[in-house]
Write a structure and sequence with these properties.
- The chain is of the alpha/beta class and 307 residues long.
- It has a single domain, classed as 3-Layer(aba) Sandwich (Rossmann fold).
- Helices cover 38% and strands 14% of the residues.
- It has twelve helices and eight strands.
- Strands 2-1-3-4-6-5-7-8 form an eight-stranded mixed β-sheet, with helices on both faces.
């Protein structure tokens, strides 16, 4: 695992000058991801926030080979590139190690592009798929996605007299990827750079497919001040709303266990998308969210052998 000093000396794959919102966690995640890569990388990025803000024609913030894919096929795109690479190496036309990364938000990987993602994992391509999870379709107007948590206000699950925000629980894509039986699956968050970069390096070194989902706090869609991004990420882990763990060859490992698990409302109350939950008529939803977090945390402790 490279030290912070070593990482700081590596060339930046994502340059300054991109047009992400102030406080957006996704560029932080991408910079950490690219700095951790041990070999040259090729990135394919699905349509979404990071594609739009980094590649507005005729400019690009990417200083590496980059392919823009459609919303639904980023995993298929990079699996094709990886297959071509293996064929060229076999013929002796390429003699260096290259890593391949498919990048997308929750809209592209939880939902629209899930079929391509599942297929690429099942076929066993040697690649990393990384999802920056901002828990809604932020690029197109903050519509709810499969990653949007229970009770969250979005433009298509608006909190009001009819519904109290999203009425369904979020999809657990980490567990879904574990069920594919791939060599490496991990959950990470940008406040813990050491954990995130270690997982990226491990994901790229492992032979075969790897999947990572990284929480990506969104000031615009979640409703918090832009300087609070890292603190919001930290609270997600401290409350166990977003546990940091990895599954390597089917073996669960918990990477962070809070000394004192904070109540989930400490995370929720800092965000406008959940403010309607702190009213008498919606208190039952707060209790339900806490129960869900507690149940999932206890399950994870058992799977990791921590009980």
């Amino acid at each position: 695992m490279p030290s912070l000093k070593e990482l700081s000396r590596r060339p930046e794959g994502l340059t300054s000058g991109h047009r992400a919102c102030s406080g957006c966690a996704a560029p932080v995640i991408l910079r950490q991801m690219l700095l951790a890569a041990p070999n040259p990388v090729v990135v394919s990025c699905a349509t979404g926030c990071m594609e739009v803000v980094t590649t507005i024609y005729p400019y690009t913030a990417w200083d590496i080979p980059f392919i823009h894919s459609a919303f639904e096929n980023v995993a298929a795109t990079i699996s094709g590139v990886e297959t071509a690479y293996r064929a060229l190496r076999k013929r002796g036309k390429i003699d260096r190690e290259i890593d391949f990364i498919a990048l997308g938000g929750d809209g592209a990987l939880y939902d629209i592009g899930f079929q391509a993602l599942s297929g690429a994992m099942e076929r066993g391509h040697d690649m990393l798929v990384l999802c920056y999870d901002n828990q809604a379709y932020m690029n197109t107007g903050i519509q709810r996605s499969g990653a949007t948590p229970l009770g969250a206000h979005t433009t298509t699950s608006p909190a009001g007299k009819v519904i109290p925000g999203k009425t369904e629980r979020r999809k657990d894509i980490t567990a879904t990827m574990v069920a594919h039986g791939i060599p490496y699956v991990a959950q990470a968050a940008p406040h813990n750079w050491r954990d995130l970069t270690r997982k990226v390096e491990k994901a790229l070194v492992v032979e075969g497919p790897a999947f990572m989902v990284v929480l990506s706090p969104c000031p615009l869609g979640w409703g918090f001040d832009s300087h609070e991004t890292i603190e919001i990420s930290r609270l997600a882990a401290e409350t166990c709303f977003w546990p940091l763990y990895e599954v390597e060859d089917g073996q669960y490992r918990l990477n962070y266990k809070p000394r004192e698990k904070k109540p989930v409302e400490e995370f929720l109350k800092r965000q406008v998308r959940f403010r309607h939950l702190f009213t008498p008529q919606n208190e039952h939803l707060l209790s339900q969210i806490q129960e869900d977090v507690d149940r999932q945390w206890e399950r994870l402790l058992k799977l990791a052998g921590e009980t």
